[in-house]
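[Discussion] Sanity-checking designs against the backbone

I'm trying to build intuition for which residues belong where. Below is a structure token string of 290 positions. I'd appreciate it if someone posts a full sequence so I can compare it with mine line by line.
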């Protein structure tokens, strides 16, 4: 069910309703393949009960504007939004990258993303996994060997003032990130293991009615920290990984009587914010919050 509790303009609702996304006759898409098997199964099981507000998908909807850029800005040799397929361990897997471009006799597979400037330079293993999966599909379906992988990152929070004052900050509002290319064997093995994980989850659910639990990584679990805060305040002066470190810092403060050490327990951000959309139906999370 789609809601619009903040009264956003009707164009947003229409764009969502007119989404022409089609995964073809594949058993699983790369997007679902990279997700937790538990989340994937719960999303399918509770599809009719999932409530999504338009405001939660604004950047996803804005991402559709990239389609116009790609279609109208493409050269004749560019391959735009081509869905590709491959058979892996009995399942048909599909994926759709944004573009494949030929440049100086090299095939460059591109994916365009709206993201934050903070994300640039950080560990982007998910980008690496996703684009290498697409590269494998390009070889399997299009008989095309990809030479390079790129994420075209549109930085929604980019600030010119920060770019002027820091060489480590992205120097433009659009950043091209080169993604490491795996060997074809590594690409296939990764997809195979992900397919097996989802197949095992389906088997477990069909036979026993149970689901494998999400890992801390799947749940975006934050580690607990010890914060030195002003008594009665919210913002911390400094955070520490251990109580001993926090106490040591606190004892050296000239005005230590005005401050205290508080444990801030880590939480699974994906579950708490219901970014997976199935937290209300997830026994793992519901048992935890009891």
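Best answer:
Here's mine. Compare freely.
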């Amino acid at each position: 069910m789609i809601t619009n509790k903040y009264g956003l303009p009707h164009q947003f609702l229409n764009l969502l309703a007119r989404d022409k996304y089609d995964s073809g006759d594949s058993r699983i898409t790369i997007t679902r393949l990279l997700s937790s098997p538990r989340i994937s199964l719960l999303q399918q099981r509770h599809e009719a009960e999932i409530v999504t507000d338009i405001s939660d998908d604004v950047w996803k909807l804005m991402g559709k504007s990239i389609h116009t850029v790609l279609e109208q800005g493409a050269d004749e040799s560019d391959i735009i939004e081509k869905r590709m397929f491959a058979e892996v361990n009995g399942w048909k897997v599909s994926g759709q990258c944004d573009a494949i471009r030929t440049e100086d006799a090299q095939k460059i597979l591109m994916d365009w993303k709206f993201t934050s400037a903070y994300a640039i330079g950080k560990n982007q293993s998910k980008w690496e996994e996703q684009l290498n999966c697409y590269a494998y599909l390009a070889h399997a379906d299009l008989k095309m060997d990809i030479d390079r992988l790129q994420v075209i990152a549109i930085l929604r929070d980019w600030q010119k003032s920060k770019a002027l004052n820091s060489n480590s900050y992205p120097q433009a509002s659009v950043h091209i990130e080169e993604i490491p290319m795996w060997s074809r064997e590594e690409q296939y093995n990764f997809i195979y293991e992900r397919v097996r994980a989802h197949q095992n989850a389906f088997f477990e659910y069909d036979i026993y009615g149970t689901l494998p639990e999400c890992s801390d990584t799947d749940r975006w679990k934050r580690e607990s920290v010890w914060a030195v805060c002003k008594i009665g305040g919210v913002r911390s002066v400094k955070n520490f990984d251990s109580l001993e470190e926090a106490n040591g810092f606190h004892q050296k403060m000239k005005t230590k009587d005005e401050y205290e050490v508080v444990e801030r327990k880590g939480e699974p951000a994906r579950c708490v914010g219901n970014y997976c959309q199935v937290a209300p139906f997830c026994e793992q999370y519901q048992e935890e919050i009891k």
